[in-house]
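Sanity check. The docking grid for adenosine monophosphate depends on where the pocket ends up, so I'm generating a full predicted complex first rather than guessing from homology. Inputs follow.
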Amino acid sequence: MIADRPEIRLYNTLTKSKEIFTPLDEANVRMYVCGPTVYDYAHIGNARPAIVFDVLFRLLRHVYGDDHVTYVRNITDVDDKITARARRDYPGVPLNQAIHDVTQTTEKQYKHDMSALGCLDPSVEPRATENIGEMIAMIDGLVKGGHAYAKDGHVLFDVRSFISDGELEYGKLARRSLDDMIAGARVEVAPYKRDPMDFVLWKPSTDDEPGWESPWGRGRPGWHIECSAMSARYLGETFDIHGGGIDLSFPHHENELAQSRCANHTEIMAQVWMHNGFLNVEGEKMSKSLGNFITVHELLETDTFGGRTWPGDVLRLAVLMTNYREPIDFSIARLNEAEAMLQKWKTRILEGGLKFDGSTAAVEAGAGPCSKLIAALANDLNMPGALAELHRHAREEGLHHAQRLYGSLQLLGLADEASMKAFVAAEAEAMEDVDQTGVATRIDERLKAIANKDFATADAIREDLLTQNVQLMDYKDPETGERRTKWEIRK
Ligand code: AMP
Ligand code: ZN
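Predicted complex below; grid placement will be based on this.
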């Protein structure tokens, strides 16, 4: 925890305004983020909430102390998409075994990918199937409290029962009236529903579908109730921050909020509802159903995108370069830009005198991010402001700025000792491949050519060296004013 706590302000979808954040309990700041449905690799759009809320998690840990923040991200391991995938990919295998394989494999891939993207493990990653008892109990309470009804093996939430002070509460997060919702949404008009907007809490399963015994017969939970049950179990009936992608704000979060408040008889579910914007490809949301998605796995391990693999920190920065509420247009140009930035920052950290060979205590001595970076993040995760701070330290000379730069990148999950060591090693390896005396000779030849105004030859030498990844940089000798040339390996 830091002594001089910055004021954190967060944009709350519920109030449509940026508010000062005051945790319900400073000793335990609590955040819930809707996690993946595990049937396929996560695409880079799915990674956006994981990365964005990881930055918020890191900020909260920095401000309130590592042991005073609880971050829950669930794993949805029961869903019709999972069942369909298991049937498709494991013909002939008993369905429950196939489902187990699909969910276990996908969950492992997800965790691997998110950690490659620099995301810390959440404090708890509960699986839906391990919380069915909690869901049944919550649904039972809703039925008994007059907020839900059972019909034909289904249990539905009665949206019109969610009233406070004589006013209908359902729709307040989405800011839509029931009539607008009905007109706008393609809601399933089922015979067992009282109102078209009533949504499923529990549904019956056929014998071969996954199912659990319940007061309403053998069945399985709807998606929304999962998050209400798991957040209550691991964070309590009310907590601080609830996050996810903007597509989840309606109906998923509206429904979670309705269920939780009605079941727990509370005024709020979460204090702040936060939503990240979409990651788009050519103007369209990246999504599995549109088929325009690139998985994190492909980006990390294959040459599907741009003919090469991309390091996790480059992907992470490419996502963080844009304010979290704005849309991102995902492109190769964006990745190149992120990569160049990271390389420059790492180079500046080394030039500033930080060593990563265990020989000095400079790294520890420099621990800690720059306070202006923290102030930028505390302002609703203002990443463009944070990047400006990083650029400012990269422009300045000296150890202090190198330390601040490194400390700030560490906080953002963009650099650590291991990645800096790998960077040093890669630089050394690239240098080994270069004939350094040869380069010095060519530089002399080029400087002579320039002196003779033979610019064609000078340019040809520059181009030739570039093909060997040697990048020349001219500068003026500060004392004599003469033209000099230095070089580095182009990455
Ligand atoms: P899903 O597995 O589809 O439920 O999505 C998991 C998380 O990723 C949710 O928080 C979604 O809101 C989020 N998400 C899905 N697609 C995108 C996208 N293209 N851009 C940003 N976030 C997304
Ligand atoms: Zn959820």
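Relevant for the grid: The mean pLDDT is 94.
Also worth noting: The two ends are 38 Å apart (CA to CA).
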